[in-house]
Amino acid sequence: MPSAVFYMDPLHEKKSCEMRILHVLGVAGLPRDPDREPTSGVARAALEIARAQAAEGHEVELLSVGQTSWQAVWQGVKLIRLRHAPWAHIRLLGRSLDFSRHLPLVLYTRRKHFDVVHTHLQPYLRFIRTPLRVAHIHNDLLDAPAAQLEGRIADVQRIEQDADLIVTVSHYLKGSIGRHASSESVKTVHNGGSYSRDIVEKARGNRDDARRSLKVTDENFVILYVGGFSANKGVLHLVNAFEQLALESDRVILALAGGAKLWGQGERPRESDDQYQDMVEQHLRPFSHQVRELGLVAPKDLPSVYAAADVLVVPSVCQEGFGLVAAEGMSMGLPVIASRVGGLSEVVSDRGGLLVPPADEHALLEALRTLLGDASLRGSLAAGARSQATNYTWDRTAQQLLRLYASKVGQ
Question: In what residue span(s) does the Glycosyltransferase subfamily 4-like N-terminal domain sit (predicted)?
Protein backbone atom coordinates (compact mmCIF):
# COMPACT_ATOMS: atom_id res chain seq x y z
CA MET A 1 0.00 0.00 0.00
CA PRO A 2 1.14 3.62 -0.51
CA SER A 3 3.63 5.17 1.84
CA ALA A 4 1.62 8.42 1.96
CA VAL A 5 0.67 9.60 5.43
CA PHE A 6 -2.72 11.18 6.15
CA TYR A 7 -3.21 13.83 8.84
CA MET A 8 -6.84 14.33 9.81
CA ASP A 9 -8.37 16.83 12.19
CA PRO A 10 -10.64 15.56 15.00
CA LEU A 11 -13.83 16.49 13.12
CA HIS A 12 -12.68 14.80 9.89
CA GLU A 13 -13.68 17.97 8.03
CA LYS A 14 -10.36 18.42 6.27
CA LYS A 15 -7.29 16.35 5.67
CA SER A 16 -3.91 17.16 4.23
CA CYS A 17 -1.42 14.72 2.82
CA GLU A 18 1.11 14.27 0.13
CA MET A 19 -0.09 11.79 -2.46
CA ARG A 20 0.64 11.36 -6.13
CA ILE A 21 -2.70 10.76 -7.83
CA LEU A 22 -3.18 9.89 -11.48
CA HIS A 23 -6.67 10.28 -12.94
CA VAL A 24 -7.24 8.42 -16.19
CA LEU A 25 -9.94 9.48 -18.62
CA GLY A 26 -10.85 6.54 -20.82
CA VAL A 27 -12.68 7.12 -24.09
CA ALA A 28 -13.81 10.69 -23.34
CA GLY A 29 -11.85 13.56 -24.82
CA LEU A 30 -9.49 15.51 -22.56
CA PRO A 31 -9.46 19.26 -23.30
CA ARG A 32 -6.17 21.11 -23.40
CA ASP A 33 -7.93 24.28 -22.16
CA PRO A 34 -10.77 23.13 -19.85
CA ASP A 35 -12.06 26.67 -19.26
CA ARG A 36 -12.70 27.24 -22.96
CA GLU A 37 -13.25 23.80 -24.53
CA PRO A 38 -16.66 22.16 -23.99
CA THR A 39 -16.48 18.67 -22.52
CA SER A 40 -18.65 15.71 -21.66
CA GLY A 41 -19.99 15.40 -18.12
CA VAL A 42 -17.54 12.61 -17.26
CA ALA A 43 -14.56 14.64 -18.47
CA ARG A 44 -15.78 17.64 -16.49
CA ALA A 45 -16.17 15.51 -13.35
CA ALA A 46 -12.65 14.10 -13.69
CA LEU A 47 -11.26 17.60 -14.20
CA GLU A 48 -13.06 19.10 -11.22
CA ILE A 49 -12.15 16.24 -8.88
CA ALA A 50 -8.51 16.53 -9.94
CA ARG A 51 -8.60 20.31 -9.44
CA ALA A 52 -10.11 20.00 -5.96
CA GLN A 53 -7.58 17.34 -4.94
CA ALA A 54 -4.70 19.49 -6.18
CA ALA A 55 -6.07 22.36 -4.10
CA GLU A 56 -5.86 20.04 -1.07
CA GLY A 57 -2.10 19.77 -1.58
CA HIS A 58 -1.80 16.62 -3.68
CA GLU A 59 0.30 16.13 -6.80
CA VAL A 60 -2.35 15.33 -9.38
CA GLU A 61 -2.20 14.39 -13.05
CA LEU A 62 -5.04 13.74 -15.48
CA LEU A 63 -4.22 11.54 -18.45
CA SER A 64 -5.90 10.33 -21.61
CA VAL A 65 -4.72 8.43 -24.67
CA GLY A 66 -5.40 9.56 -28.22
CA GLN A 67 -3.97 10.08 -31.68
CA THR A 68 -1.66 12.93 -30.67
CA SER A 69 0.39 13.70 -27.56
CA TRP A 70 0.59 16.94 -25.57
CA GLN A 71 0.93 18.32 -22.04
CA ALA A 72 -0.61 21.32 -20.27
CA VAL A 73 -1.24 22.59 -16.76
CA TRP A 74 -4.67 23.70 -15.52
CA GLN A 75 -5.56 24.81 -11.99
CA GLY A 76 -2.51 23.03 -10.56
CA VAL A 77 -3.29 19.78 -12.44
CA LYS A 78 -0.91 18.37 -15.04
CA LEU A 79 -2.92 17.39 -18.13
CA ILE A 80 -1.33 14.71 -20.30
CA ARG A 81 -2.34 13.24 -23.62
CA LEU A 82 -0.35 10.13 -24.56
CA ARG A 83 -0.17 8.93 -28.13
CA HIS A 84 -1.86 5.60 -28.69
CA ALA A 85 0.07 2.53 -29.85
CA PRO A 86 -1.81 1.46 -33.03
CA TRP A 87 0.39 -1.64 -33.41
CA ALA A 88 -0.57 -3.05 -29.99
CA HIS A 89 -2.96 -5.78 -31.11
CA ILE A 90 -2.59 -9.43 -30.21
CA ARG A 91 -4.54 -12.60 -30.91
CA LEU A 92 -5.31 -14.86 -27.97
CA LEU A 93 -7.48 -17.95 -28.05
CA GLY A 94 -8.92 -16.91 -31.39
CA ARG A 95 -9.77 -13.37 -30.23
CA SER A 96 -8.19 -10.09 -31.33
CA LEU A 97 -7.30 -7.93 -28.32
CA ASP A 98 -6.74 -4.19 -28.75
CA PHE A 99 -4.18 -2.74 -26.32
CA SER A 100 -3.52 0.39 -28.38
CA ARG A 101 -4.90 2.68 -25.68
CA HIS A 102 -4.15 0.57 -22.63
CA LEU A 103 -0.47 -0.12 -23.28
CA PRO A 104 0.65 3.57 -23.13
CA LEU A 105 -1.17 3.91 -19.79
CA VAL A 106 0.45 0.77 -18.38
CA LEU A 107 3.91 1.91 -19.45
CA TYR A 108 3.31 5.36 -17.97
CA THR A 109 2.40 3.91 -14.55
CA ARG A 110 5.56 1.78 -14.66
CA ARG A 111 7.79 4.77 -15.44
CA LYS A 112 6.31 6.92 -12.69
CA HIS A 113 5.19 6.03 -9.17
CA PHE A 114 1.62 6.96 -8.22
CA ASP A 115 0.01 6.25 -4.88
CA VAL A 116 -3.42 6.12 -6.55
CA VAL A 117 -4.52 5.52 -10.13
CA HIS A 118 -8.14 6.64 -10.39
CA THR A 119 -9.86 5.69 -13.65
CA HIS A 120 -12.96 7.11 -15.36
CA LEU A 121 -14.58 5.31 -18.32
CA GLN A 122 -11.78 2.75 -18.19
CA PRO A 123 -13.19 -0.77 -17.73
CA TYR A 124 -9.79 -2.48 -18.08
CA LEU A 125 -7.38 -1.90 -15.18
CA ARG A 126 -5.10 -4.93 -15.42
CA PHE A 127 -1.32 -4.38 -15.48
CA ILE A 128 -1.64 -0.79 -14.19
CA ARG A 129 1.14 -0.45 -11.60
CA THR A 130 0.01 1.33 -8.45
CA PRO A 131 -0.77 0.34 -4.87
CA LEU A 132 -4.39 1.55 -5.18
CA ARG A 133 -6.51 1.18 -8.31
CA VAL A 134 -9.84 3.03 -8.27
CA ALA A 135 -12.58 2.51 -10.85
CA HIS A 136 -15.05 5.42 -10.97
CA ILE A 137 -18.37 4.44 -12.56
CA HIS A 138 -20.27 7.42 -14.01
CA ASN A 139 -22.79 5.67 -16.28
CA ASP A 140 -25.03 2.63 -16.01
CA LEU A 141 -22.97 -0.02 -17.78
CA LEU A 142 -25.95 -2.38 -17.66
CA ASP A 143 -28.40 0.02 -19.34
CA ALA A 144 -27.64 -1.55 -22.70
CA PRO A 145 -29.34 -3.48 -25.52
CA ALA A 146 -29.71 -7.20 -24.90
CA ALA A 147 -27.05 -7.98 -27.50
CA GLN A 148 -24.48 -6.00 -25.50
CA LEU A 149 -25.53 -6.97 -22.00
CA GLU A 150 -23.35 -10.06 -21.65
CA GLY A 151 -20.25 -8.04 -22.53
CA ARG A 152 -21.22 -5.27 -20.10
CA ILE A 153 -21.67 -7.77 -17.27
CA ALA A 154 -18.21 -9.12 -18.07
CA ASP A 155 -16.88 -5.55 -17.85
CA VAL A 156 -18.35 -5.14 -14.36
CA GLN A 157 -16.90 -8.44 -13.21
CA ARG A 158 -13.50 -7.55 -14.68
CA ILE A 159 -13.56 -4.18 -12.91
CA GLU A 160 -14.35 -5.84 -9.59
CA GLN A 161 -11.52 -8.31 -10.09
CA ASP A 162 -8.89 -5.68 -10.93
CA ALA A 163 -9.93 -2.64 -8.87
CA ASP A 164 -9.14 -2.11 -5.20
CA LEU A 165 -12.06 0.31 -4.94
CA ILE A 166 -15.14 0.92 -7.07
CA VAL A 167 -16.89 4.29 -6.78
CA THR A 168 -20.31 5.11 -8.23
CA VAL A 169 -21.74 8.62 -8.61
CA SER A 170 -25.20 7.67 -7.30
CA HIS A 171 -26.96 5.12 -5.13
CA TYR A 172 -28.86 4.05 -8.23
CA LEU A 173 -25.59 3.09 -9.94
CA LYS A 174 -24.41 1.23 -6.86
CA GLY A 175 -27.58 -0.85 -6.98
CA SER A 176 -27.15 -1.53 -10.68
CA ILE A 177 -23.48 -2.50 -10.43
CA GLY A 178 -24.16 -4.38 -7.20
CA ARG A 179 -26.19 -6.99 -9.05
CA HIS A 180 -22.92 -8.32 -10.48
CA ALA A 181 -20.31 -7.08 -7.99
CA SER A 182 -19.93 -7.37 -4.24
CA SER A 183 -21.73 -4.47 -2.53
CA GLU A 184 -18.82 -4.25 -0.07
CA SER A 185 -16.44 -3.25 -2.87
CA VAL A 186 -18.74 -0.52 -4.22
CA LYS A 187 -18.99 2.92 -2.58
CA THR A 188 -21.14 5.90 -3.60
CA VAL A 189 -19.76 9.43 -3.83
CA HIS A 190 -22.08 11.93 -5.47
CA ASN A 191 -20.59 14.26 -8.05
CA GLY A 192 -20.34 17.97 -7.45
CA GLY A 193 -21.71 20.45 -9.94
CA SER A 194 -22.60 23.49 -7.88
CA TYR A 195 -20.93 26.70 -8.90
CA SER A 196 -19.16 28.76 -6.24
CA ARG A 197 -21.00 31.65 -4.61
CA ASP A 198 -18.79 34.18 -6.42
CA ILE A 199 -19.58 32.69 -9.83
CA VAL A 200 -23.31 32.51 -9.06
CA GLU A 201 -23.51 36.08 -7.79
CA LYS A 202 -21.58 37.45 -10.75
CA ALA A 203 -23.70 35.58 -13.31
CA ARG A 204 -27.00 36.42 -11.62
CA GLY A 205 -25.92 40.04 -11.32
CA ASN A 206 -25.42 40.12 -15.10
CA ARG A 207 -28.72 38.38 -15.89
CA ASP A 208 -30.12 41.35 -17.82
CA ASP A 209 -27.05 41.45 -20.07
CA ALA A 210 -27.21 37.68 -20.57
CA ARG A 211 -30.85 37.88 -21.63
CA ARG A 212 -30.14 40.77 -23.99
CA SER A 213 -27.43 38.65 -25.61
CA LEU A 214 -30.13 36.04 -26.32
CA LYS A 215 -32.42 38.78 -27.69
CA VAL A 216 -35.12 38.08 -25.11
CA THR A 217 -37.05 40.48 -22.87
CA ASP A 218 -38.37 40.29 -19.32
CA GLU A 219 -41.66 39.07 -20.77
CA ASN A 220 -40.13 35.98 -22.34
CA PHE A 221 -40.06 32.57 -20.67
CA VAL A 222 -36.71 30.95 -21.50
CA ILE A 223 -36.52 27.14 -21.47
CA LEU A 224 -32.92 25.91 -21.41
CA TYR A 225 -31.37 22.61 -22.46
CA VAL A 226 -27.65 21.99 -21.88
CA GLY A 227 -25.87 18.88 -23.11
CA GLY A 228 -25.24 16.54 -25.99
CA PHE A 229 -27.62 15.86 -28.83
CA SER A 230 -28.33 12.15 -28.94
CA ALA A 231 -31.38 9.92 -28.69
CA ASN A 232 -30.66 8.88 -25.09
CA LYS A 233 -30.71 12.54 -23.97
CA GLY A 234 -34.33 12.92 -25.12
CA VAL A 235 -33.84 16.26 -26.87
CA LEU A 236 -36.55 15.55 -29.47
CA HIS A 237 -39.09 14.94 -26.70
CA LEU A 238 -38.34 18.39 -25.35
CA VAL A 239 -38.55 19.88 -28.85
CA ASN A 240 -41.96 18.30 -29.44
CA ALA A 241 -43.30 19.62 -26.13
CA PHE A 242 -41.84 23.05 -26.86
CA GLU A 243 -43.47 23.19 -30.31
CA GLN A 244 -46.91 22.76 -28.76
CA LEU A 245 -46.19 25.36 -26.08
CA ALA A 246 -44.84 27.78 -28.68
CA LEU A 247 -48.15 27.52 -30.57
CA GLU A 248 -49.93 28.53 -27.38
CA SER A 249 -47.65 31.40 -26.33
CA ASP A 250 -45.22 33.62 -28.24
CA ARG A 251 -43.49 34.41 -24.91
CA VAL A 252 -41.79 31.03 -24.94
CA ILE A 253 -38.15 30.76 -26.04
CA LEU A 254 -36.13 27.53 -26.29
CA ALA A 255 -32.36 27.91 -25.79
CA LEU A 256 -30.16 24.94 -26.70
CA ALA A 257 -26.54 24.83 -25.50
CA GLY A 258 -24.55 21.86 -26.74
CA GLY A 259 -24.62 19.58 -29.73
CA ALA A 260 -23.72 16.23 -31.22
CA LYS A 261 -20.01 16.93 -31.03
CA LEU A 262 -19.97 17.59 -27.27
CA TRP A 263 -18.65 14.10 -26.47
CA GLY A 264 -16.41 14.14 -29.51
CA GLN A 265 -14.01 16.89 -28.45
CA GLY A 266 -10.67 15.52 -29.62
CA GLU A 267 -12.30 12.36 -30.97
CA ARG A 268 -14.53 11.60 -33.93
CA PRO A 269 -18.24 12.18 -33.12
CA ARG A 270 -20.70 9.38 -33.77
CA GLU A 271 -22.51 9.64 -37.09
CA SER A 272 -25.81 8.74 -35.40
CA ASP A 273 -25.51 11.80 -33.13
CA ASP A 274 -24.93 14.08 -36.13
CA GLN A 275 -28.05 12.63 -37.75
CA TYR A 276 -30.01 13.15 -34.54
CA GLN A 277 -28.95 16.80 -34.39
CA ASP A 278 -30.11 17.22 -37.99
CA MET A 279 -33.53 15.88 -36.96
CA VAL A 280 -33.70 18.31 -34.03
CA GLU A 281 -32.85 21.25 -36.26
CA GLN A 282 -35.44 20.20 -38.87
CA HIS A 283 -38.16 20.10 -36.23
CA LEU A 284 -37.22 23.55 -34.93
CA ARG A 285 -37.01 25.29 -38.31
CA PRO A 286 -40.67 26.47 -38.36
CA PHE A 287 -40.16 28.01 -34.89
CA SER A 288 -36.78 29.60 -35.55
CA HIS A 289 -37.92 33.00 -34.21
CA GLN A 290 -38.51 31.37 -30.82
CA VAL A 291 -35.32 29.26 -30.76
CA ARG A 292 -31.80 30.20 -29.72
CA GLU A 293 -29.23 27.62 -30.85
CA LEU A 294 -26.09 28.47 -28.88
CA GLY A 295 -23.90 25.57 -30.06
CA LEU A 296 -21.03 24.35 -27.91
CA VAL A 297 -20.57 26.81 -25.04
CA ALA A 298 -17.24 27.31 -23.26
CA PRO A 299 -17.46 26.13 -19.63
CA LYS A 300 -16.48 29.59 -18.38
CA ASP A 301 -19.51 31.05 -20.19
CA LEU A 302 -22.09 28.50 -19.04
CA PRO A 303 -23.05 30.31 -15.79
CA SER A 304 -24.24 33.29 -17.87
CA VAL A 305 -26.35 30.96 -20.01
CA TYR A 306 -27.96 29.45 -16.92
CA ALA A 307 -28.54 32.92 -15.49
CA ALA A 308 -30.46 33.97 -18.61
CA ALA A 309 -32.96 31.10 -18.35
CA ASP A 310 -36.20 30.67 -16.40
CA VAL A 311 -36.28 26.87 -16.30
CA LEU A 312 -33.82 24.06 -17.08
CA VAL A 313 -35.02 20.85 -18.70
CA VAL A 314 -33.14 17.54 -18.50
CA PRO A 315 -35.30 15.18 -20.62
CA SER A 316 -33.06 12.08 -20.62
CA VAL A 317 -34.57 8.72 -21.54
CA CYS A 318 -31.52 6.68 -20.49
CA GLN A 319 -30.76 5.70 -16.90
CA GLU A 320 -28.52 8.66 -16.09
CA GLY A 321 -25.77 7.94 -13.60
CA PHE A 322 -26.06 11.37 -12.01
CA GLY A 323 -27.34 14.78 -13.14
CA LEU A 324 -24.41 17.15 -13.49
CA VAL A 325 -26.27 19.71 -15.60
CA ALA A 326 -29.16 19.62 -13.13
CA ALA A 327 -26.80 20.32 -10.21
CA GLU A 328 -25.21 23.21 -12.12
CA GLY A 329 -28.57 24.73 -12.97
CA MET A 330 -29.93 24.29 -9.44
CA SER A 331 -26.94 26.14 -7.99
CA MET A 332 -27.84 29.03 -10.31
CA GLY A 333 -31.36 29.07 -8.86
CA LEU A 334 -33.12 27.43 -11.80
CA PRO A 335 -36.18 25.20 -11.31
CA VAL A 336 -35.47 21.91 -13.08
CA ILE A 337 -37.85 19.71 -15.03
CA ALA A 338 -36.18 16.32 -15.27
CA SER A 339 -36.98 12.76 -16.26
CA ARG A 340 -37.46 10.35 -13.39
CA VAL A 341 -34.52 8.14 -14.36
CA GLY A 342 -31.49 6.66 -12.63
CA GLY A 343 -29.38 8.92 -10.47
CA LEU A 344 -30.99 12.04 -11.95
CA SER A 345 -33.94 11.59 -9.60
CA GLU A 346 -31.51 11.61 -6.65
CA VAL A 347 -30.33 15.08 -7.64
CA VAL A 348 -33.69 16.65 -8.53
CA SER A 349 -36.55 16.50 -6.03
CA ASP A 350 -39.90 18.24 -5.63
CA ARG A 351 -38.12 20.85 -3.49
CA GLY A 352 -36.33 22.25 -6.51
CA GLY A 353 -38.06 20.91 -9.58
CA LEU A 354 -40.59 18.67 -11.24
CA LEU A 355 -39.96 15.04 -12.20
CA VAL A 356 -41.76 13.53 -15.19
CA PRO A 357 -41.74 10.04 -16.74
CA PRO A 358 -39.08 9.62 -19.45
CA ALA A 359 -40.23 10.13 -23.04
CA ASP A 360 -43.65 11.35 -21.83
CA GLU A 361 -44.09 14.47 -23.95
CA HIS A 362 -47.54 15.22 -22.54
CA ALA A 363 -46.22 15.20 -18.95
CA LEU A 364 -43.28 17.37 -20.03
CA LEU A 365 -45.64 19.82 -21.74
CA GLU A 366 -47.85 20.01 -18.63
CA ALA A 367 -44.83 20.69 -16.41
CA LEU A 368 -43.72 23.49 -18.74
CA ARG A 369 -47.24 24.93 -18.79
CA THR A 370 -47.35 24.85 -15.00
CA LEU A 371 -44.11 26.79 -14.59
CA LEU A 372 -44.95 29.20 -17.41
CA GLY A 373 -48.17 30.17 -15.67
CA ASP A 374 -47.07 30.19 -12.02
CA ALA A 375 -44.32 32.66 -11.14
CA SER A 376 -44.81 31.98 -7.42
CA LEU A 377 -44.11 28.27 -7.90
CA ARG A 378 -41.04 29.10 -10.00
CA GLY A 379 -39.75 31.25 -7.15
CA SER A 380 -40.25 28.60 -4.47
CA LEU A 381 -38.68 25.90 -6.61
CA ALA A 382 -35.74 28.19 -7.39
CA ALA A 383 -35.11 28.70 -3.67
CA GLY A 384 -35.35 24.95 -3.05
CA ALA A 385 -33.00 24.24 -5.94
CA ARG A 386 -30.35 26.62 -4.59
CA SER A 387 -30.59 25.01 -1.14
CA GLN A 388 -30.42 21.45 -2.46
CA ALA A 389 -27.47 22.23 -4.73
CA THR A 390 -25.27 22.90 -1.70
CA ASN A 391 -25.12 19.11 -1.28
CA TYR A 392 -23.22 18.81 -4.56
CA THR A 393 -19.86 20.58 -4.43
CA TRP A 394 -16.61 19.36 -5.96
CA ASP A 395 -14.72 20.08 -2.73
CA ARG A 396 -17.03 17.70 -0.88
CA THR A 397 -16.66 15.07 -3.60
CA ALA A 398 -12.86 15.31 -3.50
CA GLN A 399 -12.73 15.07 0.29
CA GLN A 400 -15.00 12.01 0.36
CA LEU A 401 -12.77 10.33 -2.21
CA LEU A 402 -9.68 11.14 -0.16
CA ARG A 403 -11.29 9.50 2.87
CA LEU A 404 -11.97 6.40 0.79
CA TYR A 405 -8.34 6.36 -0.37
CA ALA A 406 -7.27 6.60 3.28
CA SER A 407 -9.53 3.72 4.31
CA LYS A 408 -7.88 1.52 1.69
CA VAL A 409 -4.38 2.69 2.57
CA GLY A 410 -4.93 1.48 6.12
CA GLN A 411 -5.93 -2.04 5.09
Answer: 40-192
pLDDT average, residue stretch 106-135: 93
> Can you tell me the distance from the alpha carbon of 252 to that of 239, in angstroms, rounded to the nearest whole number?
12
Q: Indicate whether 103 and 234 sit together in one domain.
A: no
- Tally the domains of the chain: 2
C-alpha–C-alpha distance, residues 94 and 233, integer Å: 37
Same domain, 157 and 282: no
- The half-sphere exposure of 41 on its side-chain side, counting CA atoms within 13 A, is 20
Q: Please name every residue paired with 338 in a beta bridge, in sequence order, or none if there are none.
A: 314, 355
Residue range 21-50: average pLDDT?
93
Domain-located, residue 212 = yes
Q: Which residues contact 197 (CB under 8 A, 6 or more apart)?
A: none
What distance separates the 2 farthest-apart alpha carbons in the chain? 67
Of 171, 167, 183, the residue nearest 342 (C-alpha): 171
Name the nearest CA neighbour of 231 among 341, 318, 140, 344: 318
219 and 115 within one domain: no
The CATH number of the domain holding residue 37 is 3.40.50.2000
**Co-location of 380 and 404 in the same domain:** no
Q: Give 261-292 pLDDT, tens digit per residue.
A: 776 544 445 667 788 899 999 999 999 999 99
Judgement on whether residues 42 and 174 belong to the same structural domain of the protein: yes
User: pLDDT tens for residues 92-103?
Assistant: 666 667 788 899
Q: Are strands 95-98 and 116-120 parallel, antiparallel or unpaired?
A: unpaired
How much is the pLDDT for 400? 97
- Parent domain of 360: 197-389
Q: What percent of the chain has pLDDT over 70?
A: 91
The whole-angstrom distance between residue 331's C-alpha and the CA centroid of its chain comes to 15
Give how far Cα 122 sits from Cα of 63, 65, 105, 156, 350, Å: 12, 11, 11, 11, 34
Report which secondary-structure segment, H or E, holds 205: helix 197-205
pLDDT of residue 92: 67
Output the pTM of the full model.
Answer: 0.91
Q: Is residue 1 part of a domain?
A: no
Most confidently modeled of 25-29, 95-99, 184-188, 335-339? 335-339
**Bridge partners of 161?**
none
